[in-house]
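Every protein is a chain of amino acids, and every chain bends into a shape of its own. The fold becomes a row of whole numbers, each drawn from a learned catalogue of backbone shapes. The protein below has been through that process, and both of its lines are reproduced in full.
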Amino acid sequence: MKPEERPIGYWLRELDRRVEDAFRRTLDGRQLRRRHWQVLNGLGPQDPFWGPGERPYEEVVADLAGRGWVTPDGTLTADGETARAAIAADVAEVRRRAAAGVPDEDYLTTVRTLARMADNLSAG
């Protein structure tokens, strides 16, 4: 089957699955999950990726505090900053691989198109 013969929903789910898998493979060696990265990178429970069934934010912060990377209230420590910088490089590589060969304009068109489709569906 040619790629264009599959509906957009298929490709959205497939890309999401592959992004999650790439993050899992990248972060597993550090015994981390994507939510750890998001908390270290300054996101919180208001993050749009934080959905039902996710590990509670407080649990992720407690795990990071146990590693000495954040204080119990979620403030980044010096060790946390070092870890964040190292993980940021890993995450940048995942993003680079995901977008390899996609011209910037095509990427922006895709993002704008998906945002428009989401807006179209939220209005109804």
Summary: The mean pLDDT is 88.
